[in-house]
Write a structure and sequence with these properties.
The chain has four domains: 213 residues, Muramoyl-pentapeptide Carboxypeptidase, domain 2; 131 residues, Rossmann fold, CATH 3.40.50.300; 82 residues, Helicase, Ruva Protein, domain 3, CATH 1.10.8.60; 58 residues, no CATH class. It is 44% helix and 15% strand. It contains 22 helices and 15 strands.
């Protein structure tokens, strides 16, 4: 957890104490985006879905009927647990400079934002260093209660299984040790609201639905990890579903000598995945020979086949191979030399007619599709960190990350050049940005490209297109005009700093972490300046 606040990681509050007030959720709201044209909803770099409560009711009913009540409850609890873990990691990135309570409070706020329940803290106590935790919360309007009532009717036992899993998963990541919540009261049983209590695993025997915490590794350890990177070349990393599917196929086919056809747009990393397959095969000690079809003639093709003996030969851009060379390649293939045949293409060979059918049948019995970057944008933060680390090492520079505007631009962009384009843009930005300064949108894209329109959720719960001006906020005056006005009034720097800081603190209702975010500062930086201007 963050340790930059200059405070002890402890917190104790109960009742209606102002300390339990949830912070402003604007920092979370602005990361929820709707992309109707792409069929996606994202929260930060996580893909989300809207789900009918009626569909959730049907799912619960089917699970209960097929698995029984206890096993259905366990499945839904695990599902909620994973969701809570993911939100906790997201909250740590968004509120990394906030107080410990504000980071914990992001869980209830995200739960509400995602439509699961309105959460009110009743009592919160934690000491992260000692592992102590006690949290009591009230849930209003539980979507899971509505789903259960719709499918099963009134219940004699609490029914907020997914919500309990979420709270446990979120707080487990926050505390760094397993935290289990129990539902003390439930609206499905006749209570006015649902009420939960969370304590560390071990303080009490865990409910049966949480047996996985003590009998198996935590869900984070058991969930599908990012695939291992190739041992040579530029690694193709990420955890998106399409990429995981490609890695799964590579791991299955690597131990065989079956030819593999890599399909995908230019720049997605087909050659690097082919090298990764070679490195995992029994031919890893042999040569890996990649050649581009456009550069081949009969002698160079024969030479490439000879050099690849005992190893793997990759024919890239197979679709541009001339008919004459296709026939020669077929002859080499039928001669069955001691090599592994690999090919890569950017088109659908089975429908394009660019490559003869008998060659496609020989080279393409095991196709591996590599998705474009626009279909796995959730991997962009991971790819960006890798690129920045490599550029920092190569240039001997101190690269500290990107601004929020730059991050939004990266997620907005369609990436026609895929990984190759991302690498090039980061390389350019690394040269332009100063040491210890975050990369901004202009470093990556210049001033020519307008961001595509998307839908964002406003604080009032309305969807607004980013292409439209915000009617509630008039366009700000150009910064130059503001500077000229201040200079005309002979406003001193100290007076300006005092006005900015006090206004930001007032707008944030005294919440220093929220005020710091308004000013682009960390909380300790603002606290120091606030003490100075406050006298």
């Amino acid at each position: 957890m963050p340790d930059s606040q200059g405070e002890q990681p402890t917190f104790v509050a109960a009742g209606d104490d102002d300390a339990l007030r949830l912070p402003d959720s604007a920092d979370l709201l602005k990361h929820l985006r709707f992309w109707p044209g792409d069929g996606r909803i994202t929260l930060g770099d996580e893909r989300m879905v809207l789900l009918h409560v009626g569909a959730l009711a049907t799912l619960r009913s089917e699970l209960i009927a097929s698995l029984g009540l206890a096993r259905a409850r366990a499945v839904l609890t695990r599902m909620g647990y994973v969701s809570g873990q993911r939100d906790a990691e997201y909250a740590r990135r968004i509120r990394g400079d906030a107080t410990y309570y504000e980071i914990l409070a992001a869980g209830p706020q995200l739960h509400a934002l995602e439509g699961m329940a309105a959460v009110r803290p009743i009592e919160v106590q934690f000491d992260i260093e000692r592992g102590h935790y006690r949290g009591e919360f009230l849930w209003r309007s539980s979507a899971e209660v509505d789903a259960h009532l719709g499918s099963e009717g009134r219940s004699s036992e609490p029914v907020c299984w997914t919500l309990l899993g979420y709270a446990s998963g979120y707080t487990t990541v926050f505390m760094g040790r397993p935290i289990i919540y129990r539902e003390l009261a439930c609206r499905a049983c006749g209570a006015r609201h649902c009420r939960i209590l969370g304590r560390p695993l071990g303080d009490d025997a865990p409910p049966p639905e949480f047996a996985f915490l003590s009998s198996r590794p935590p869900l984070a350890a058991r969930s599908t990890p990012p695939p291992p990177a190739p041992t040579t070349g530029d690694p193709i990393i990420g955890a998106a579903t399409g990429l995981r599917a490609a890695w799964s196929l590579i791991d299955r086919v690597a131990a065989t000598d079956l030819p593999v056809l890599f399909e995908g747009e230019p720049g997605v990393g087909k050659r690097h995945l082919a090298r990764a397959l070679h490195d995992r095969s029994r031919r890893a000690d042999g040569p890996f020979i990649p050649v581009r079809a456009a550069a081949l003639d009969a002698p160079t093709l024969a030479d490439a086949v000879a050099r690849a003996r005992g190893g793997s030969l990759l024919i890239a851009d197979l679709e541009v191979l001339s008919p004459e060379l296709q026939a020669r390649l077929l002859d080499h293939f039928d001669a069955a030399p001691d090599l592994r045949w690999l090919a890569a293409t950017r088109v659908d060979l089975r429908r394009s007619g660019l490559v003869r059918d008998d060659l496609v049948q020989r080279l393409g019995p095991f196709p591996v599709y590599v998705p474009p970057l626009r279909e796995r944008k959730e991997d962009i933060p991971l790819l960006l960190r890798r690129e920045l680390a490599e550029r920092a090492r190569g240039l001997q520079r101190r690269l500290v990350g990107v601004t929020e505007a730059a991050n939004n631009a990266l997620l907005d962009h369609d990436w026609p050049g895929n990984l190759r384009e991302l690498s090039g843009r980061v390389a350019r930005a690394a040269v332009l940005v100063d040491d210890d300064q975050p990369i901004d949108r202009g470093h990556l894209f210049g001033g020519d490209e307008a961001p595509p329109a998307r839908l964002e959720l406003t604080p009032t719960g309305e969807l607004r297109s980013t292409a439209d001006p915000d009617p509630a906020e008039p366009a700000p005056a150009p910064l130059g005009d503001l500077v000229d006005a201040l200079l005309d009034r002979r406003t001193g720097i100290e007076a300006l700093e005092h006005a900015l800081i006090t206004s930001a603190v007032a707008r944030a209702d005294g919440n220093l972490a929220a005020a710091a975010r308004l000013l682009g500062l960390t909380r300790p930086q603002l606290a120091y300046r606030f003490r100075k201007v406050d006298g």
